[in-house]
Amino acid sequence: MTLELLIAKYGLLAVFLGAGIEGETMVILGGIFAHRHLMTYWEAAAAAATGSFIADQLFFFTGRHARRWSRIRKLVDQPAFQRANRLLERYPAGFIFAFRFVYGLRTISPVAIGMSNVPTATFMAVNAVAAVIWGTLFTAIGYLFGQGIEQIFGHLPLHRHVLVAIVAVAALLIGGAFTYRRFRAA
Fold it and tell me: What are the C-alpha distances in Å from 105 to residues 64, 98, 102, 162, 163?
């Protein structure tokens, strides 16, 4: 079975799971797959938004119902959790909307929100809107990135297209992490 057939058959599931587990890289790849006509743009964006929404809801309910578990208690002692909690207390709706866009807070934030007094319905509503925007945006980045790769390198075989995308996304994430750390240290 070729890579194209695997992606055509299981690509949406991979984008769905990747959006919930890993995040941006898999969603950007979903946009590249859409550019390569292995799925439609809207299918990839919907899979990304749905995967992100469901994962965040699961993390939220983990925080809401498992706060006494030792693993969750250890999480509360982490500096990232404390930062997320301070931001949540100051800007509840804005934080719920924006946490998925902030490096280092994406997984821990829904747990912190679940442990707070934020009503479940509020979190679900804001999380749904944010997931749709996030999924649509990062799928579009992948789609446009795929066009850019094609314009620069020509029509590459899919495995090289994906490899170039992974290297570029990794470089952007590493650069973003260094910039964030440098900004935070200043």
Answer: 17, 10, 6, 27, 27
Q: Please give the backbone phi and psi of residue 173, each rounded to the nearest 5 degrees, phi first.
A: -65, -40
**Pair of tokens at residue 104:** 């280092």
DSSP line for 140-186: HHHHHHHHHHHHHH-S--HHHHHHHHHHHHHHHHHHHHHHHHHHHH-
The percentage of residues in the chain with a pLDDT greater than 90, rounded to a whole number, is 23
Is residue 62 within 8 A of residue 114, CB to CB? The reply is yes
How does DSSP classify residue 13? H
Which residues of the chain are modeled with pLDDT < 50? Answer: none
First to last CA, the chain: 51
**Hey, what are 126's tokens?**
């804001």
- Predicted TM-score (pTM) of the model is 0.73
The two tokens of residue 152 are 């620069």
pLDDT number for residue 43? 93
pLDDT at 2: 61
Mean of per-residue pLDDT scores for the chain: 80
Residue 186 tokens, joined:
């200043």
Question: Distance between CA 114 and CA 157 in Å, rounded?
Answer: 44
